[in-house]
Amino acid sequence: MIGAEHGPLDRTPGIRPRPSLWRRLDAAARTCFPLAATALLLLVLAAPLGLPAQAELLPAVALACVFFWTLFRPASMTPPAVFVLGLLADLLGDALPGTQIVTLLIAHGLILRWRRSLVRQGFLLVWLAYCGITAGAAAFAWALGSLLSLSLLPAAPAVFQAVISAGFYPALAIVLVRTHRGLAAPEQA
Amino acid sequence: MIRLSISARQALAKLTLPVLIAAAFGLLLLGKADTMLAERVRMALSDTLVPIYGVLAEPLASARRVIESGERLFAVARENDRLREENERLRKWQAVALALDAENATLRANLHWIPDPAVTYVTARVVADAGGEYARSVLLSVGPNHSVTKGQIALDDRGLVGRVTEVGARSARVLLISDMNSRVPVTLEGSRARAMLIGTNGPRPRLMYWPEGTPPVEGERVVTSAEANAFPANLPVGTVHYNASNVAEVEPAARLDRLEIIRLFDYGLHGILPPEAARTAERPNLERPILERQSPEHPVPDRIADRQPTTVADRQQTMTADRQQTTADRQQTMTADRPMDRRH
């Protein structure tokens, strides 16, 4: 990515500082920021904070972060990163291990497919798309749980999860948009 | 670093997601097949995280305290208003109580009232609900060197529970007011009418033998009566409730179905001692031997009221007999074990 700046396909030609070691480290840190910040957020949410609906907040935050970073900075939210986040969410929560990984990876794939048209839309449409994703994720997790336990699980917790997840997104998006433009932007390194 | 062609790198990038999804499914199945493995991994993660959370807990708790105190500060004004209003109301009641207290004191002084003796009590834990299909009683653990005697009154934190019927070296049995053998003289608080509270083994004992013209009123409070010198007056028993077949019952104030701690009050009353349950003979260890009880050195006090007469006529006879009982009568030593015999 940094090497490409000096190649023949330099999209933004101009004068820029030489890529020194520190600059490269800074860029790498900014690239890794979404993954690290999301992991840290998950760890903090697993702490006994005593928040209302904290158990539902953890998967909601994981999905929202994966959604946002996949949409706006796919280079920072690669499939392995999603895998790691899913694993962490699974181990911190008490669902069957693997459920979150599969859900997040599928959501990640879907967003990647739609991102070209979605990334140009305003906040409201993005949120709507997120609502769709979270409803699908809740339905998928419910179906997976029912299948693996070979019994029909009650649907109310899944609905609650989807509602919490969709409702929490705008609050999280305000912070994420800030970091997207500031802390997590490698081009500012 | 291995140099790959652009097309190979693109193919690899496209493959990552499906491969990872497959791996996730594999993990899912593995976790389902070997739940111990998933648990171990989860516990390992928790073990590393717990010290961190432990360090976090203190500032978190203080933050929560700050938030809580802030919330309380907001609620203080409303709470203050409520308390002031309540205080106003209670002050009125206090005035009433003080006036009544003063009036009571003057009346007593004028009447040469014999003051009620000071009451001692012990508290004991219920260790067994010894009731069965045909008996309602509880077993208390009273420890060695106890001062529990037969006839002491058992109350829980809300009301009358029953009376001590058997006393052993470390335990005591309390016959509940809901037992079929239980007879408690009571007063209906509204009309001051006397009645008998008769256990049925059901949850609500029955009210009987109230004077003509003063039927118990639904919801009326029922307290013990000092009649027959078996109970002190005015212990709360419960409230009147008419059941579906219009029989006056008493909803006990005490929680008879979940007794945990019971206070045993010694009012020094030995008017009528509770019956020894027929079970005593089967458990001679709980009591002094029967022979000793019947010997003249240990006169057995009278016990009549709680024996179960079989017919209504019998019951009424018992009642009238109880009413006519005098102190002299009570002091007589009784040798026969069947109290009804003496009456006929």
Structure report:
The complex is a heterodimer of chains A (189) and B (344). Chain A has 189 residues and is an all-alpha fold. Chain A has one domain (20-188). Chain A has helices spanning 21-46, 54-72, 79-92, 99-118, 123-149, 156-181. Chain A is elongated, with a radius of gyration of 18 Å. Chain B has a 6-stranded antiparallel beta barrel. The radius of gyration of chain B is 34 Å and the shape is elongated. Chain B contains 6 helices and 12 strands. Classes of the chains: A mainly alpha (189), B alpha+beta (344).
Strand order of the largest sheet of chain B: 1-2-5-4-3-12
Number of strands of chain A: 0
Counted beta strands of chain B = 12
The major β-sheet of chain A equals: none
Taking all Cα atoms into account, the compactness measure Rg of chain A is 18 Å
Give a short account of the largest sheet of chain B. 6 strands, antiparallel, barrel
Overall 3D form of chain A: elongated
Question: What is Rg of chain B?
Answer: 34 Å
The tally of helices of chain B reads 6
Oligomeric state:
heterodimer
Beta-strand level of the residues of chain B, as a percent range?
15-25%
Percent helix of chain B: 25-40%
Query: Strand portion of chain A, in percent?
Result: under 5%
**Secondary structure: helix percent of chain A:** 55-70%
Output mean pLDDT of chain B. Answer: 78
* Molecular shape of chain B: elongated
Low-confidence stretches of chain B: 277-344
The largest chain-to-chain contact, stated as pair and per-chain residue counts, equals: A-B, 28 and 24 residues
Number of helices of chain A: 6
Question: What order do the helices and strands of chain B follow?
Answer: HHEEEEEEEEEEEEHHHH
Given the helix and strand composition of chain B, which structural class is it?
alpha+beta
